Amino acid sequence: MSNGLPQLRLLHLVSPSLPVGAFTYSQGLEWAVECGWVTGRDSLRNWVVDLMQTSMTYLEVPLLGRLYRAAADGDTDAMAHWSHCLVAARETRELREEERNRGRALATLLPELGVPVSAELLPSIRQCQLAGFAHAVGHWRIPLQQAVEGYLWGWLENMVLAGVKIVPLGQTAGQQVIAELTALIPGAVVTGLQVEDASIGASCTAQSIASSLHETQHTRIYRS
Predict the structure, then answer these.
(1) What pLDDT, in 10s, does the model give residues 95-124?
(2) Domain 5-15+24-214 architecture
(3) Nearest Cα to 129, choosing from 103, 155, 148?
(4) Model's pTM, two decimal places?
C-alpha cells in the first residue's frame, strides 16, 4: 500500500457520493429553518458550531475512538457495546432511525468495496454508521486522528450544504461557513479523543426539539 492510499480511502469514505443516504438528513435543521431559528449565514454557522461543540465533540468523536480500537482488537463485544451507546444517546426517533438506516446501508456497501464484514460484526455495523466507518478505516490502516478529522469534515459539509438548500443560501456563503468551521475540527478531535468513558454523551436541546417537531412537519424535503 502506498503512503498516500489510506488518505485517498478516507476521502472515499467521507465523500457525499457514498450511497449511505447522508444527503437525505438534516438532523433537525429543516425545522430550525421553518420556525425561524436559522435564517441566514450567521445563524447557520452558530447552529453547526453548537452541534460540533456538543454532540460531535463529546459523543461521536470519543465513540469513534473506542470503536476504532475495538475494531483493531477484533473485540466484537466492545463494538456492540459502543454502537448501542451511540443509538441510546440519540434523543429522538428520527435520529435513532437515521443511525440504523445509514448503518444498514454501509453494512451492505463495505463488502462491495473490499472490506470484509464478519457475521459477528454485522449486527454492530447495522446499528450505526460510526461502527462501519471505524471498521473500514481500520481495515485500510487509516490513522485514528486522520479518520476522526475526516469524519467530522464530512459531517460539517453535509450540514452546511443542507442549510444552503433549506435557508436558502448562496453557494459562496456556504463555502465560507465550511472554510471557517473547518478550522475548529482539529481542536474538536483533540478534545473528543480525551473524553473519558463516564463523560461520553451530549445533549443539544435545540436539536432535540427541532428533530422531534420535524417528525410531524407538514412540508419537508429531508428525512430528519
Answers:
(1) 999 999 999 999 999 999 999 999 999 999
(2) Orthogonal Bundle (1.10)
(3) 103
(4) 0.94
